[in-house]
Fold these 3 entries.
Entry 1:
Amino acid sequence: MPMTPEQHGKLAAFVDAHHAGQVAFLREIVRVPSDTPPGDNAPAAAKAAELLERLGHTVERHPVPEAFLRDYGMKSVVNLIVRHRFGTGGPTIALNAHGDVVPPGEGWTKPPYEGVVENGRMVARGVAVSKSDIASYTYALEALKAMARDGVRLNGTVELHFTYDEEFGGLAGPGWLLEHGLTKPDFAITASFSYAIVTAHNGCLQVEVTVHGKATHGAIPKTGHDALRAANAILTAVYAEADRLEAVKSTVAGIDSPTFIVGTVAGGINTNVVPDRIVLRMDRRMIPEEDPAAVEARVREVIEGAVRAHAGIRVEIRRLLLARALKPLPGHEKLVAVLQRHGERVFGEPIPAVGVPLYADARLYGERGIPIVMYGAGPRTILEANAKRADENLLLEDLRRATQVVASAVADLLSA
């Protein structure tokens, strides 16, 4: 039987009564740095596991081997799984949030790893993206456990997946758990935004292009092969391609066009030497309609074609990342329906279901055929929350209300 309005009211009352404890829980989470890079994130996982065990959970710790991480570019990752069984039968629903963050950078007016609360907001690196949802998902599960103790019949399993490599792409986080058969949920909800339900996101191809030439004295440049001049031709071709992509439009609401940028340029020997080597790093965002293999082939064609007329120049193209787009899968509409229903009830306004132009490790669940959406307590908008900028912050009222929404949505799925 579906949950009654009275029962949903009791879920909300539990969340309200435990909000102060949830805020304290979140403050302890954000006080452990988990900057990625360098990605030495086992201490952050240890703190989360400790806090979960204080709440009475059995916490599975799944360390990723050093050999994998060494090649991957990180130092330590321990992924956490909590499994709580309700009744018999029913679906398994995974709630995933990542505990790694980008380094804080400069410009903070509050300590980035203190969790200062001021004017109803907590300020800390990662508090919005996405340590907030470690707290929202944990306390949504606590509310469900309380309902079950009160005799409400729920059937199914809730799994908490707390992972620590989203900033590197997710292969050592959800990717590792799924690849090694450590979990196989029927549905998944991952960290996102407190108002919109994200049903799709862009993919991303990142490549490193090394342009090899031949150094020579700046007084006799014709006796060398200028890697920078060749790199300049590549830049011109890349930006022409970027302009062309503006005419390509996605049919997914919230997603516009593919993009193509050069993020870093490095190289050269000295001011008076013709450069023998230039390294470019590029980011090509893919809309859900695009084929990643075709996109990568086109990127290589653009780069290689730009230098064909440059004698003595050789280019190496190395793929750094291929993150496929998240596309809606059959079954995701059940997640959208319950989240929209309770989101509108709790927040008092319609909750849109949209795509976003960024990419996330949610795609890894989708690649395994698991219906998934992104929803949580994080920023209403990235700019409002200063996500990945100085003074990142979270409106604590959104944490409270999003926790109510997630608890009620999962309750409906377990009582259907």
Entry 2:
Amino acid sequence: MEQVERRTVVMKRQTAKKGIALHRLTKIAMLSAVAGVLMLFEAPLWFAPSFYKLDLSELAVMIGALSMGPLAGAAIELIKILLNFVLNGTITGGVGELGNFIVGCAFVVPAAWIYGKWHNAKGMLLGMAAGTAVLVALGSLVNYFILLPVYATVFGQPLEFFVQMDNALNPAIVDLKTLILYAVAPFNLLKGLLVSALTFVIYRKLGRQLEQ
């Protein structure tokens, strides 16, 4: 009798775990789809080159990361990039998409990790502030060493071409370093702050349901 009860308990636990895993995968798929759709709606900013366009896809990624953890956030980021790759293709042989994945993870992973340690409003704000800082720093490095050189190669233009494009908008931009300082870094800072603010408002209303 005791063995039957133990087997029943074990089976119930296994069923519960499978249900949780399925629910988790469903949320990852749903948020990835939302992020993919949001990525289609993008807008240029007045201080950055025209190929830098702001979208709010990281909003869905951040919500997923906060509710399910850093690994889930990275998975949503990856699926979002792959969806965009399928829908829009690529002109950089996947290098630009790889850079976007790295920069996106730099934003959401630190935020989710810190929120997991301090599971309250202050922890969320601290996490997203840290994520924004990492986004700006790593985003600047990735653009300086990877993305801008790749774009220059793809478009068949020297790096000075992009500097001249932005110099017309901001005379302080005279070389690649000032392009990063006055265009790329502010772009990522604005994106981080905007997504963080929207996430904080939405998550305070829906966070409990998302974490269940």
Entry 3:
Amino acid sequence: MILPNTDGDGAFLLADKLRLKINEQSCQIENNDITLSISCGIFTYQQELNIGPEQIFSYADKALYEAKNQGRNQTKQYIFTE
């Protein structure tokens, strides 16, 4: 998702609420209940120089894979430091 005018805390909160809501749902396939979960990766862009779309998606992807590598079903935020 792209969330204009949303800071890192707001983006994290929204992503984590979404994650929790999805985890509360279940699907039934052929009489089997399936628990759903997602992992979320957050990166907040604040008009830093030399950061383009490729870097934005790359940093969000790094956060997503950190969430997956640490057990899935969680939200992680990539913090950019120069």
